């Protein structure tokens, strides 16, 4: 399997219209990528400018960041043309996308949708978020370093400019190449531009620490909270077997729910479930189950008690 490490530059208008009033908030103006083979050796590269169709004026921040020369973008081809060339370049062999941060794959699909291109997929797409992996690698899980800081920290040579699609893809690839297989094994991210629509397409990520489920989309919130399967607390070490509840699901704001369970073999498990709304207006949930301690369970119990008291008053 190949790795397509890519990066986008986009332009954003600055006229203060709310993003919900817009069909396209970020217009892609450059696509850059590096292709790695399964040994993570660079075997090819891609870099093309896109001539803007939606926002003719490039906002000053983008201009400054990208150091665009006057008229440079006009030399680019239209998005559809560049995108088709990019997909052709990606090739017919299996590949997985890699990017710095979680946003690029979403914006790529949003731009494709805007131009009514055939979607990359109609379900969640697995990818490697190299920014997240880098955080885990340096023992700062959850930190989101910017690319240049990461390159400095890793002691890489800065031999191409930053803030251009090719350069950023190249550095992301350099950082990715150094990652251990073990780290990559259980750390896929999923782009949720298209959420799962069937039970079969639901996303399950299990590693020694957590068990994550991204459910299929449903019409009403109630369809989630009344679903046994979606609300089950499972022990992943016992092979997804539901366990006895210790604290039943409760919520302080109807968006995040908490619960806890107990597996006689593997101990306490706490659950956190977030209900989200997709771009298409459906509800879906992200459920995270984590092994925990008795003290932690006690805290959850107290939280629930306190909440019940305040709602009664
Ligand atoms: Zn168990």
Question: Which regions contain 5 or more consecutive residues with pLDDT less than 50?
Answer: none
Distance between the terminal alpha carbons, to the nearest Å?
A: 59 Å
Which assembly state applies to the chains in this document?
single chain
Q: CATH homologous superfamily of the largest domain - what is it?
A: Ribonuclease H-like superfamily/Ribonuclease H
Strand order of the largest sheet: 3-2-1-4-5-6
Work out the count of structural domains: 2
Catalogue the ligands.
Answer: zinc ion
Largest sheet: 6 strands, mixed
* Rg, Å, rounded: 22 Å
The structure class reads alpha+beta
Mean pLDDT: 91
Number of strands: 14
CATH class of the largest domain: Alpha Beta
Shape: globular
Helix-strand pattern: EEEHHEHEHHHHEEEHHEEEEEEH
Helix proportion range:
25-40%
CATH level-3 fold name of the largest domain = Nucleotidyltransferase, domain 5
Strand content is 25-35%
Q: Architecture of the largest domain, CATH level 2?
A: 2-Layer Sandwich
Question: How would you explain this protein's 3D organization?
Answer:
The protein has 313 residues and is α+β, with helices and mostly antiparallel strands. It folds into two domains: 2-185, Nucleotidyltransferase, domain 5 (2-Layer Sandwich); 195-312, Alpha-D-Glucose-1,6-Bisphosphate, Chain A, domain 4 (2-Layer Sandwich), CATH 3.30.530. It has ten helices and 14 strands. It has helices spanning 60-66, 79-90, 104-114, 130-137, 147-153, 165-177, 181-185, 221-225, 228-231, 294-312; strands at residues 2-11, 27-36, 42-49, 95-99, 125-129, 189-191, 203-206, 210-214, 234-235, 241-242, 244-251, 256-263, 267-277, 283-292. The strands form three sheets. It has a six-stranded mixed beta sheet with strand order 3-2-1-4-5-6, sandwiched between helices. Strands 7-8-14-13-12-11 form a six-stranded antiparallel beta sheet, covered by helices on one side. α5 (147-153) packs across α6. It starts with a strand and ends with a helix. It binds zinc ion. Zinc ion (ZN) binds next to loops. The site of zinc ion has 6 residues, from loops.
């Amino acid at each position: 399997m190949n790795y397509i490490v890519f990066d986008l530059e986009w332009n954003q208008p600055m006229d203060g219209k709310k993003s919900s009033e817009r069909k396209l908030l970020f217009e892609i103006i450059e696509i850059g990528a590096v292709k790695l083979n399964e040994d993570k050796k660079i075997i090819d590269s891609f870099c093309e400018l896109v001539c803007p169709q939606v926002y003719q004026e490039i906002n000053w921040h983008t201009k400054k960041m990208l150091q665009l020369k006057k008229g440079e973008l006009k030399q680019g081809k239209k998005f559809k043309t560049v995108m088709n060339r990019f997909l052709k370049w990606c090739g017919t062999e299996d590949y997985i996308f890699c990017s710095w941060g979680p946003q690029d794959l979403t914006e790529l699909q949003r731009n494709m949708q805007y131009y009514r291109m055939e979607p990359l997929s109609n379900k969640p797409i697995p990818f490697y978020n190299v920014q997240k992996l880098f955080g885990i690698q340096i023992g700062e899980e959850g930190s989101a370093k910017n690319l240049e800081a990461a390159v400095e920290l890793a002691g890489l040579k800065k031999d191409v400019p930053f803030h251009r699609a090719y350069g950023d893809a190249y550095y992301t690839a350099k950082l990715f190449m150094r990652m251990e297989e073990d780290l990559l094994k259980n750390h896929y991210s999923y782009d949720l531009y298209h959420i799962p629509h069937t039970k079969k397409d639901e996303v399950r990520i299990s590693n020694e620490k957590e068990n994550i489920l991204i459910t299929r989309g449903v019409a009403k919130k109630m369809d989630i909270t009344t679903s046994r399967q979606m609300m089950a607390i499972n022990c992943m070490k016992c092979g997804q077997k539901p366990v006895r509840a210790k604290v039943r699901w409760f919520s302080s704001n109807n968006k995040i729910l908490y619960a806890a369970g107990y597996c006689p073999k593997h101990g306490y498990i706490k659950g956190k479930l977030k209900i989200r709304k997709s771009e298409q207006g459906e509800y879906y949930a992200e459920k995270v189950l984590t092994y925990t301690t008795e003290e932690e369970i006690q805290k959850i119990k107290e939280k629930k008690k306190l909440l019940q008291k305040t709602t009664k008053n």
